[in-house]
Recover the amino acids of this structure.
């Protein structure tokens, strides 16, 4: 079977993304073939396209970007008895920028009736990331003050809503006044424009000088080190993305006075065990079903329009989640 895929043959800008035709065979033992309807678009794809530091496994060119998608099961490989042909599913496995593909059944999640393929394809990676950030790496408790950077972005709106549902006081930062209403509408109690205000000083003011329990940072270079100044004693700074560039070395003694912790995690290790993948997805779907978390798709691009999709995401002018549509 011939299908459309997006390959890169070298690291670089959006211009290295090329649409090609590839052959997809029958699924092997333990695999399913998925005909995709929505392919997730994430900043991690840009890191991989650039060849930037990250958890990506080295692979030979041509390389197919992406790690998540959703659609319907098209065929079953030998030994797969937990899924059925025609079933709506989502998955997490590298090589997602392809209209039809084979995926290990252990990386596939059956979708409940109230979660669409479109939404799952756009938000699964972010939802699973929010699950481990809020419930496992740092366990958010009622009354905790938390700081969410890029609170109007695709990841920020999920983190903010879920943190609020857990009883946290949510402070968000954004890069422009235009993004403030989005952050306020998606869980934030307070929003700071970090380009025009000293966000650390303002955060300390909002918390009565106590600081926040945890900082969730997907921006990186521009905000990470100043974020240490608004953590409470025993607080944790988590850098899970580097939209503004990598965080360079800093003086470890900055952590000493308040016994602070710093973490640079990746989702892959938190869902490496298929059981953890399924539990994380179940927790995500539960909070969606409760009404505390609204998952939305703000932008849709044709798969063959992937260069424009990357350009707009890379500009950091966009908000919310997006999908590539085969």
């Amino acid at each position: 079977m011939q299908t459309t895929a997006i390959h890169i043959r070298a690291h670089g800008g959006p211009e290295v993304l090329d649409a090609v035709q590839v052959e997809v065979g029958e699924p092997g033992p333990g695999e399913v073939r998925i005909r995709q309807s929505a392919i997730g678009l994430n900043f991690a794809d840009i890191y991989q396209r650039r060849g930037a530091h990250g958890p990506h496994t080295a692979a030979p060119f041509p390389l197919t970007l992406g790690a998540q998608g959703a659609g319907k099961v098209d065929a079953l490989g030998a030994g797969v008895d937990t899924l059925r042909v025609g079933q709506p599913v989502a998955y997490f496995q590298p090589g997602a920028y392809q209209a039809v593909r084979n995926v290990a059944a252990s990386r596939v999640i059956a979708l409940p009736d109230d979660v669409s393929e479109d939404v799952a394809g756009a938000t699964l990676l972010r939802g699973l990331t929010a699950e481990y950030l809020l419930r496992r790496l740092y366990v958010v408790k009622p009354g905790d003050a938390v700081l969410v950077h890029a609170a109007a972005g695709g990841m920020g709106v999920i983190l903010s809503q879920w943190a609020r549902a857990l009883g946290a006081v949510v402070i968000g930062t954004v890069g422009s006044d235009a993004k403030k209403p989005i952050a306020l509408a998606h869980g934030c109690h307070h929003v700071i424009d970090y380009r025009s205000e000293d966000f650390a000083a303002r955060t300390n003011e909002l918390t009565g000088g106590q600081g926040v329990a945890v900082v969730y940072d997907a921006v990186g270079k521009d905000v990470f080190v100043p974020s240490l100044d608004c953590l409470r004693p025993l607080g944790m700074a988590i850098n899970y993305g580097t939209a503004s560039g990598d965080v360079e070395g800093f003086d470890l003694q900055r952590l000493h006075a308040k016994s602070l912790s710093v973490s640079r995690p990746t989702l892959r290790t938190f869902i490496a065990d298929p059981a953890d993948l399924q539990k994380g997805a179940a927790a995500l779907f539960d909070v969606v079903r409760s009404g505390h978390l609204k998952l939305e798709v703000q932008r849709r691009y044709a798969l063959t329009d992937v260069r424009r999709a990357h350009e707009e995401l890379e500009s950091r002018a966009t908000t919310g989640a997006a999908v590539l549509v085969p």
Remarks:
- The mean pLDDT is 94.
- Residues 117-137 form the longest helix (21 residues).
